[in-house]
Amino acid sequence: MIIVLSKDITPHDKEMVRIFLKDRGFTTRDQVLGDDAVIGASGKGVVDIKELGLLPGVERVAATSKPYELVSRETRNEDTIVTVGGAETPAVKIGGSRITVIAGPCAVESKDQIMETAALVRESGAVLLRGGAYKPRTSPYAFQGLGMQGLEYMKAAGEALGLPIVTEVVSPELAVQMKDLTDMFQIGARNMQNFELLKKVGSLGKPVLLKRGPSATIEEWLLSAEYLLASGTRDVVLCERGIRTFETYTRNTLDISAIPVVKGLSHLPVIVDPSHAVGIRAKVSPVALAAIAAGADGITVEVHPRPDQALSDGPQSLYPEQFEKLMRDIEALSPVVGKELLRTPRPLHGSGHTFSGADTSKNAPKPPVPEEQAVAFCGEEGAFAEQALTRAFGEDAPRIGVSSFFGIFDAVLDGTASAGVVPVENSQTGSIHENYDLFLRYPDIAIVGELKLRIVHCLIADERADMDTIRIVRSHPQGFAQCKEFLDKHPDWTLEPATTTATAVSSIARDGAVKVAAIAGEAAARVHGLKILREGIETNPLNYTRFVIIARREGEKAPVPPSLGSGRPSKASLVFSVPDEPGSLFACLRILSDKGINLSKLESRPIQGKPWEYLFYADVSIPESEGAFGTVLEELKTRTRDFHFLGAYRAAM
Ligand code: PEP
Ligand code: MN
Known about the structure:
This protein is of the alpha/beta class. Helix content is 30%, strand content 24%. It contains 20 helices and 30 strands. The strands form 6 sheets. Strands 7, 8, 9, 10, 11, 12, 13, 14 and 15 form a 9-stranded parallel sheet that branches. The chain is globular and about 85 Å long. The structure holds phosphoenolpyruvate and manganese (II) ion. The site of phosphoenolpyruvate has 9 residues, from loops.
């Protein structure tokens, strides 16, 4: 049983809770659960849970039905997000709405090999570096690793490239020696039930990657994680790496079902190691993608610059080109499962993000967003736009919900927010013209990033409601349009439009009516503690909304969201009009075509106050050579009338 204590409990009240439990036959221990201080109580005592919950300083009591408590979702419903690194390297998060990729060789073989591999995997976007300095090998004659020397090489490589490192620890004594050299400990499959090792590593307080033992049941694996949490660490990531079955074709059998099962049983992040699961290089990438599709929070994968010369696990190590392809595939798959691939920004090429053809004073590169500055979105908690914000800026980003789209622009312009998240188009219903027009009304605002959010609609209602009690459905008109086929099956329902999908949900939370349902995202139901009657009711499952991130053009604050990367911009948005004469648009498009610039979107909009005159909105690719792009912009200016450079940013997949 876990007793979650309130943040401001006094030492006296805490002691009273302990005495209360001891008097009733329990032994107690102080523990942490996520960000909360808790008391764990075990033994055969009997207690009135209600009475215990009423003691001063007790926030709630969680009695789990499972043998593990601290790792259980019954004690903590929220996903735990584990942070790795943050001192000499950037802090990298695992869990929540992100996909985190750990890559590197099986073993550190030399200073040059780990440095070369680290540079390669970083270039492809990996955010954590893996590598074994102590290798538990089946044969005593196989390469055992370089030991502490290897770990020092790895630490140097991680620091040089800004990648926190994760490495295997094989004994409690070594754990103490390795503590200051590694950012995350890995407990290998063979050591999953080495309880003395678990206790020692757990007590050091560093993040731990806990592999599943080759013959361990899910329950045994979770109990090993319980050892780590009970010993003091809060940051544990579970890693499914294949179990031993009768099948011998592959090295192990990846238990893909363990991913959704464990994510249901525990709040801890779950990642997958496709390399050790499969053992065959050519099969690693498809299995990695399957893991992401099944809900894994990331992968750890072996990559070697020359796998044929690797001292261990060469046959399962990816070539760098294979890893690059896998990262691109994961990036494309992530929005399908409602997540964003966390990736290291690619290094800047050229002299920065200024293009001679654009008004450079308005497009100066900007440093990263200061943490205390809020990001604006339209709607309230649980809105799709808020999900997009979280994906781009992280769970901890301060946010301001405003009630109109121009409110986002205003907040960014007057400095209330350092950035804003604005929906610009939906894959089914097309452009949100109102927002395109706002860019012209706010010339001091630029686009600095974009992301694509998969929109999954749910029918949400009060706990007591069911499909038969529903008479009224509320949503934003876009919600109705996107769920038309589902709504057509219920012609007796009255549709009531709401300002946003999230406001439709909060209206039910307020009314508590069993007759009313809302169409909105799952997050809105979670925020208000409402029930999901039907999930995935959008007509087309390929339903995406594209959001752009906006920021003020001047000033030193730079709002490029961490997960969208601050690397070389690959896409630009332009607005222009052309002279009213034959071939004028064609002349503009030919400039792009001659330079091999891809036009990914072209749309015309009426110019306000000038009937039958139009502006063109174009999204174009930026070639590797930024100088060439500057020339293109200069040429375009000579062929157009009104020319606005809305911004350059990294394209979302
Ligand atoms: C490793 O990650 O290199 C390793 C030895 O993995 P496992 O413990 O899963 O076999
Ligand atoms: Mn290995």
